[in-house]
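Possible regression after last week's pipeline update?

I re-ran a chain I had predicted before the update to compare outputs. Posting the input and the new output here so someone can diff against the archived version. Not blocking, just want to make sure nothing changed silently.
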Amino acid sequence: MTPISRPHRHDALISCAGLLGGLVLWAVGLHTQSGRPLSGTWVLLPLVLMAGLELLRRTAPQTALVIGTCLLLADQFTPGSLATVVMFTDLVYAAVLYGTPAAARRIPVTTGLITVGVTIGFYAWLHRPEALLIGVITGIISFTPAATGALVRSHREAADSARLRAEQTALLAEMDRSQAVVAERARMARELHDVVANHLSAIAIHSTAALSLDDPATTRQAMSVIRENSVAGLAEMRRLIGLLRDTAGHEQPAAAPTLAGLDALIAQAGTNGSASGLRFALDDRRAENGPLPAPVELAAYRIVQESLTNALKHAAPGPVEVALARADGLLTVRVTSPYGDRPGPRAPGSGAGLIGMRERVELLDGTFASGPETAPDGTKIWLVRAQLPADERTLST
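New output (post-update):
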């Protein structure tokens, strides 16, 4: 069985107020009409029942309106009570405000047609201008509360829609904030990995060599490389920390590295990889077609840096070549290194470097490929190749 809903406390107050007001009017003998077939206490029957219907104005508004209409018609056979009429107008208002959407659309139209019909009908019957007052009273009792309910319901629905849009906007803003935080953390992770991994890999390789070889000259050279990379890594870490801090009122952090610094990067890699039999070379075939976008230049630098780091970790003895070319609106970065077993110490790898390079390229809508290949001379090489948009117009589209 469906549980019976308890009346709202406001509905109970309205019901009690209407009943009490009607009893007071009856007690003082104030009625709305005279000369009716039923007199005396008959006026109390529609009054009491109409007050009872007020308890249903929210839970069963349409049912209350139908029964209330019948009670209003019955009230016309008694001396009548103003309280009964007022409570009926409230039932019309509540039926529009709390009823179904179809009822909210139908009731104002129906009451409007009834008002027009009553006005025309009584005027045609009585042929007196005073008959128009009956139409006005009918409109006040039926159409006016229905129109008021429709207006209030429209405002409530608009407020609910605005509140829902505000909640959705807040939810989307929170989602955007979360995505921005995740993206920023991923960017920081890539930057930290690319900056530190190169120096730490050199430190790991040369410290292992210093511990495994009982040669004072080799140990001294390894310690010199370790110190150089430690100082450079510390400087890079300070730069990153400066980027993360609030720089208001302080000196701006150092600018991001550019491709102009590749010569120094190659030279440092040559120093770090000499003990492993690696030789590094740069082949820059870029034409002078204007500067590169800052994100593209930083991505290209980091790709070369990470590729050199991977070569220091894993490459067999031999040449490591870095080639740059710019044509057809694209910057091509190509790094090759010997692929195969290598003697001596090796630094462990996690695979995060390749993932970071691929993410950098995808963020700029470029293409990335890496893996072992066979060189024209038949040797096995590890190839890293990235193509990035080389101008602002291509990057923005």
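Follow-up from reviewer: compared with the archived run. The chain has two domains: 9-170, 259-397. Marking as no regression found.
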